[in-house]
Amino acid sequence: MRNDVKTLVEIKSQPAVWQQCLNDLQAADLRRLADGHSPLEVEWVFIGCGTSFYLAQAAAFSFTSLLNTGTRAVPASEVLLSPELVFPRGAKSYYPVLISRSGHTSEVLQVAEILRAQQVPFLAVTCDGRELVSMTDFVLKMRVEEESTVMTSSFTSMLLGLQYLGAALASNHGFMEALQQLPKHLDRLLDTYDEQVAELAQQPFEDIAVLGQGPLYPIASESALKVMESSSTFAQFFHTLEFRHGPKSIAGPATLIGGLISESGYDAESAVLLEMKELGSQIFVVTNTADELLRKQADLLIELNLPVPELARLVMYVVWGQLLGSYRGLEKGLNPDHPRNLSRVVTI
Ligand code: F1P
Q1: Residue after which a domain boundary falls, among 151, 180, 209
Q2: How far apart are CA 296 and CA 291, in angstroms?
Q3: How many domains does the chain have?
Q4: What is the pLDDT of residues 90-107, one digit of tens each?
Q5: Are residues 118 and 239 in the same domain?
Q6: Which protein residue's CA is at the shortest distance from atom 10 of ligand 1?
Q7: pTM beyond 0.90, yes or no
Q8: Ligand 1 centroid from CA 151, angstroms
Q9: Domain-embedded: residue 344
Q10: Are residues 120 and 203 in the same domain?
């Protein structure tokens, strides 16, 4: 069954897809996509829906870190329903970045129309293109052909594209080179851990929560969304240390707690996961390198061992939630290629 699940094939095709996108990025004139803005003179507002909203959040963290500039991430619906809260000084003081795999999502196109009516330049980031690419002069289009309903390689490829853009605007050549190393490491990690994730997915968890801090919070959000979309299993996401403030009441033998643990916050974040283990939960940990205690306690530990800056590891953290969602769906007798109630694009 697994081999003909298109979503799984696309998840495991990410090393090759990333390599193709990184080759394209290396050859592109990315600086023009800033529309002449000095990255520091405007606030970059990243806008998307669903998976693309979590991508917007991860991109905002990345731009703040790489460019030390003001950024925000908002769902497209917020721009439509509360524009004065999103653009308090008027849209012209910002550089909006509209993110949409399809380029066809109604809410995103409606935002694009508003910006065009106000003559506000914006950047479009997409895979399929569709109407969105005809609405602006500034387009970052990733060469990703993704047929599945849920977003997997499109999410990681557009995030790589935006991180690469941020590094190019910062003239941070070391970071761009670091991203170039990721495809070969993902190949290695998929060979090592794919089967272990499939085994974990066979356990009858009732509650799933995925935790992450800082730039890993949107990655935790996307990981939980993949589990929800691909297996119709309710999954929540929290800032790691926030989990103690109430949500930990769900911790127990029928709960799986996923921890996306950073290097910079390792001690504080791993302590939360160990506490949940003591409360009887199973813990699934992704981190760059673990200490002996976490190695001993984790029910599934994925050590990335990536010799790159912490921010360049971001895309590598989401792959395991992508796999867990699809494997969990198969375990429940569902088909991840046709997720319940979902369509590939939301048009309203
Ligand atoms: C956004 C989106 C996806 C979701 C599903 C429906 O699509 O909401 O996040 O997983 O595929 O569409 P897009 O605007 O990025 O094409």
Answers
A1: 180
A2: 9
A3: 2
A4: 888 899 999 999 999 999
A5: no
A6: 150
A7: yes
A8: 7
A9: no
A10: no
